[in-house]
Amino acid sequence: MSSSTVMHTSTTDGLDLVADVQGDPADPAVLLFHGGGQTRHAWGGALGALATRSWYAASFDLPGHGDSAWVPNGNYDIDRFARAVADGANQFRHPVLVGASLGGLSSLVAVGEAMVNDPAALVLVDVTPRLEPEGVSRISDFMRLGIDGFDSLEDVADAVASYVPNRKRPKDISGLRKNVRQREDGKWVWHWDPKFFSRMGPDTAAAGEPTAGRFSPPLRLHAACRNVHIPTLLVRGGSSDVVSAEGAAELLELIPQAEIVDVAGAGHMVAGDRNDRFNDAVVEFLERVVRPSA
């Protein structure tokens, strides 16, 4: 299996985007965009699995996350992320976009509003226009744990274990260094701009609306869905508290050609919870709908 190389590109408004790229550039491109508060390392082996199955795979850090640039004025919204996804995708020919959570919403808008040049397919990972409030609140609570910083990597591991109790806590926690950074005071904090978290509150949507928040405006997402005419797959965590069966059914009404795969034993973090099953579901879909025309 080939090793990853680091790719740098820029958004149209001058932000540096960083991605890990693996595979043969002659193969069809599959681009991975992580969820809010994560980094490009969150895909749990999907990058390498795609490359070994003859896909040219790239995993991006979204603005304000990982090694990509922070937004100087802290203005993080769906426009910013969708534009960044499109700018990254437009570096590739006929790409497949795979987005989890925030990365999925951003990919949906980028495709549905025709920001991406000639996309091949869209894969949404446990995200739809309808998000369940309790699941979203649990994500917010988890992210809030690291705002003031952790004293040690062990404390970081404890926080992750509390959010994903179904996942076995690793004995070697050194891999967590990819998702946190150490401040000058010695505290470990999540590897994203704290101003991003301050932008997570609801703004224009009505109180109690399941899709409230500046990253998931309902009317805009519904309109984007209706403009998606490429093969689309929703990979839903079978135990997800963020995407319900009703949310998945609504997506099918909005994107009639969409397909749904439930991954048993996985929560919202599908790729991390059941990596092999996630990889198999995505590759089976892509081999069927993309490879014949590649």
Description:
Residues about 200-215 have low confidence and may be disordered. The chain has helices at about 45-50, 80-90, 100-110, 135-145, 155-165, 195-200, 220-225, 245-255, 270-275, 275-290, and strands at about 5-10, 15-20, 30-35, 55-60, 95-100, 120-125, 180, 190, 230-235, 260-265. It is α/β, with parallel strands linked by helices and about 290 residues long.
List keywords for this structure.
single chain; 294 residues; alpha/beta; Rossmann fold; eight-stranded mixed sheet; two-stranded antiparallel ribbon; 33% helix
Which percent band covers the strand fraction? 15-25%
- Class based on secondary structure composition and strand pairing: alpha/beta
Number of domains: 2
- Give the CATH level 1 class of the largest domain: Alpha Beta
Please report the total strand number as a whole number: 10
The CATH architecture of the largest domain would be 3-Layer(aba) Sandwich
List the strand order in the largest sheet.
1-2-4-3-5-6-9-10
Radius of gyration, CA atoms, in whole angstroms: 18 Å
| Biggest β-sheet description | 8 strands, mixed
Look at the structure and name the CATH superfamily of the largest domain.
Answer: Alpha/Beta hydrolase fold, catalytic domain
Tell me, rounded to a whole number, the average pLDDT. Answer: 90
